[in-house]
Specification:
With about 80 residues, the chain is mostly beta strands. The chain folds into two domains: about 1-40, no CATH class; about 45-80, no CATH class. It has one helix and six strands; from the N terminus they run E-E-E-H-E-E-E. It has one helix at about 30-40, and strands at about 1-10, 15-20, 25-30, 45-50, 65-70, 75-80. The strands form two sheets. Strands 1-2-3 form a three-stranded antiparallel sheet. A three-stranded antiparallel sheet has the order 4-5-6, with no helix packed on it. The protein is elongated and about 65 Å long. The two termini are about 30 Å apart. Zinc ion binds near residues 26 and 37.
């Protein structure tokens, strides 16, 4: 988590302490909420190809879908767009 000080106003400068989630860069005035946001993001543990396409369907060589396993053991499939 990043702690930021933001200055507002011209002649009467006010400082505000803000907290930024290091994963999605959302900024919160509340440190607890920023920590909650960070803990909510799943981090990658493993990524593996789930499906390839024949060259007649895709000449790029990129996989069509991949399976991503996260640090908590849950997984999700992602499809190329
Ligand atoms: Zn976040």
């Amino acid at each position: 988590m990043i702690e930021r000080t933001i200055r507002t106003g011209d002649d009467r400068v006010k400082e505000k302490k803000m907290y930024e989630c290091e994963f999605c860069n959302a900024v919160y005035p509340d440190e607890e909420k920023a920590q909650k946001c960070e803990k909510n993001h799943k981090t990658l543990k493993k990524c593996e190809v789930s499906r390839w396409l024949p060259i007649d369907e895709s000449w790029t060589g990129f996989p069509e879908t991949v399976k991503v396993t996260f640090d908590d053991g849950q997984y999700a499939f992602y499809k190329r767009i």
